[in-house]
Amino acid sequence: MTVTYEFPRPNLAVDCVVFGLDEEDLKILLIQRAIPPFEGRWALPGGFVQIDETLEEAALRELREETGMQDLFLEQLYTFGAVGRDPRERVVSVAYYALVNLGDHEIEAATDARNAAWFSVDDLPQLAFDHTEIVQTALKRLKGKVIYEPVGFELLPRKFTLTQLQRMYEKILERPIDKRNFRKKILGMGLLQELDEVQVDVSHRAARLYRFDEKKYRRLRQRGFNFEI
Amino acid sequence: MTVTYEFPRPNLAVDCVVFGLDEEDLKILLIQRAIPPFEGRWALPGGFVQIDETLEEAALRELREETGMQDLFLEQLYTFGAVGRDPRERVVSVAYYALVNLGDHEIEAATDARNAAWFSVDDLPQLAFDHTEIVQTALKRLKGKVIYEPVGFELLPRKFTLTQLQRMYEKILERPIDKRNFRKKILGMGLLQELDEVQVDVSHRAARLYRFDEKKYRRLRQRGFNFEI
DNA sequence: TTGACTTGGTGTCTGTTTTACACTATCATA
DNA sequence: TATGATAGTGTAAAACAGACACCAAGTCAA
Fold first, then answer.
1. Does residue B75 contact residue B98 with C-beta atoms inside 8 Å?
2. Interchain pair A49, B3: CB under 8 A
3. Which residues pair with residue B98 across a beta bridge?
4. What is the interface pTM, i.e. ipTM, of the complex?
5. In this structure, is the CB of residue B180 within 7 Å of any atom belonging to strand D?
6. Nearest residue to C20 (CA, C1')?
7. Please, what is the angle between helix A179-188 and helix A162-173, to 10°?
8. A200: nearest nucleotide, CA–C1' criterion
9. A43-93: pLDDT as tens digits
10. Contact in structure between B121 and B143 (CB atoms under 8 Å)
11. Is this prediction's pTM over 0.90?
12. What structural domains and CATH numbers belong to chain A?
């Protein structure tokens, strides 16, 4: 099955920057390419957009096919259209990004991918295509976004401690935050629900657990509340 | 000359939201379509991306061809990829936006456009395709951006009064701003160069003229200075 | 069982920023 | 020379941001 057009068209692709967080680092999900070009090289999960699916559908499909990941919230990042970014032919790629909790998702390599794995953002391998630039753009955007929207909760497990939350902000913003000021501010926003539970299996005083109260968030957001950190 | 591909491909387009400002209103540049679909309907300037040009080059070319506008700074806005957004066939469109001073640019309708004209953003005609959605997205972005970057100067003539500057912020942000606080803040940033000139031909006390000092802006920006309004 | 270690949890003070607010100055024109 | 239009200016109060240090609770090992 082939198609004929009057003028040549760029091929249209999507790429996904999926962020995760563990105790150590902010991480990104990469796949190892099983086919040329850049066979064997690590790359962002992604692929070509089919004629009858939206861009976001394409991104979700490729993520599922290549990494087994499902049900995540994608946000559009930027569209990369440099003429030589793919050595085969003209490819324009719409990049998306997502935040996930590492524990919630089992990854599994599949179609077109030899392997899928998490890499610390400050220790990435050499990437295929212009994917290093895409990752840089995503990091910048995440950093910019986390300041004025409580967006990072998706990186944490549903129940978390204030210290975990603070570490997350410190990792994304790449600067230390004062513990007392942070707690004052974040509790003052009224977005956290204090639970009657504490950490278990820790070899020191157990910290209280909290969870993100999405209802309160939506209420406050509607009123134009300011979530700056 | 035709081309044949193994799989169908979306057609790739660009669209431009060009903002301008006059004494009355924030405006947007529209063209009246000379060809179907939506013949005669007003639409954003834009068109298909050629195989050997970048997205931004395509946007600049279309602007020049359709409106005569040249030499403007485009910033990528968002990529619109809904499946039925163009009635003819699948078209994915990368939207750009720009700010210009109305006085600096003569517009002239050309290729594919019957006419080109400025429309007040709160009195737009019915637009072709999903262009109303694109305009809404651009307005939201402009509003978000103007708060933390001194971006609006491009909307004003090179020499302007503080009142003109304040009116611009009020029009974009859609809220009144206190005159004294505004002046304190904006002068405190050190981005404005006070000129030895005042308005002429006004039937009241003439206001001092200022201009935007791009050098100072770049210096401050490098140091991570905060330009919040 | 006690002491050392680890992380949790808390309040105050100070300087800065933001906001609210009203009158005089200058110029043109009638 | 009076009127009308816009320019230009300062202060006080409140809110916010940032710096800073110690005790509490639990685990573990001697």
1. yes
2. no
3. B18
4. 0.94
5. yes
6. B178
7. 110
8. D26
9. 999 999 999 999 999 999 999 999 999 999 999 999 999 999 999 999 999
10. no
11. yes
12. 11-147 (3.90.79.10), 156-222 (1.10.10.10)
